[in-house]
Amino acid sequence: MCFICGLYNGFFSFIQKMAGDWFLGLAARLVFASVLLGYFLSSALTKVGSGFPGIFIARDGAYAQILPSIAESVGYDTSKIAFIPYGLIVHLGTYAEFVLPFLILVGLFTRFAALAMIGFVAVMTYVDIVFLGLEAKAIGIPFDRIHNSVVWDQRLLWIFPLVYLVIRGAGQFSLDGMLSRIYKN
């Protein structure tokens, strides 16, 4: 039995040593990009105009998506919505969908970007539940036997690689890693 335990420990110690500090940070960023980069970029594009300067202007749909009850209260006439705080919230939320996933992908300010993205997902989840009126079945609960609830299970899996990035960072193969090597010397 000791021989088997030694083989087991030796094999997985070797794998851990080979993965080092580079693999999991890169894997977490690639998983995030594979699953969520397109999702958040296409969502952001629904909130802005096209071309220049349209890309810098939040459309009425951005208000309806991010602050549905506020937009509805003014009959979707966004000119009646105060910029502070509501317009600012909409603009920050819209551009967070562009900037944060890109920062995570390239590994620049990764810990901050991942933490901000967790906050973004939390706010998005709150809006989905409170303002879009999702049913309890769609929301799910922890440790239920339903494996595909739209909110709980999905968002928990979205957040896991982000939590890793907050705690451990992007790893060697990132702009953060490159900057730390440059400024370490």
Task: For this entry, give a set of tags.
mainly alpha; 185 residues
Structural features, described:
There is one protein chain. By secondary structure, the protein is mainly α. It has helices at residues 2-19, 23-45, 51-54, 60-66, 68-73, 83-106, 110-130, 136-139, 152-168, 175-184. The termini are far apart.
Strands, total number: 0
Which strand-content bin applies to the residues? under 5%
Q: What about the largest sheet?
A: none
Average pLDDT for all residues: 90
Overall body shape: flat
Report the uncertain regions. none
Please report the distance between the alpha carbons of the first and last residues. Answer: 48 Å
Q: How large is the radius of gyration?
A: 21 Å
- Contiguous helical run count: 10
| Helix and strand run | HHHHHHHHHH
Query: Helicity, in percent?
Result: over 70%
Structural class: mainly alpha
The gist of it:
With 185 residues, the chain is mostly helical. It is built from 10 helices and no strands.
List the helices and strands and how they pair.
Layout: H1 2-19, H2 23-45, H3 51-54, H4 60-66, H5 68-73, H6 83-106, H7 110-130, H8 136-139, H9 152-168, H10 175-184
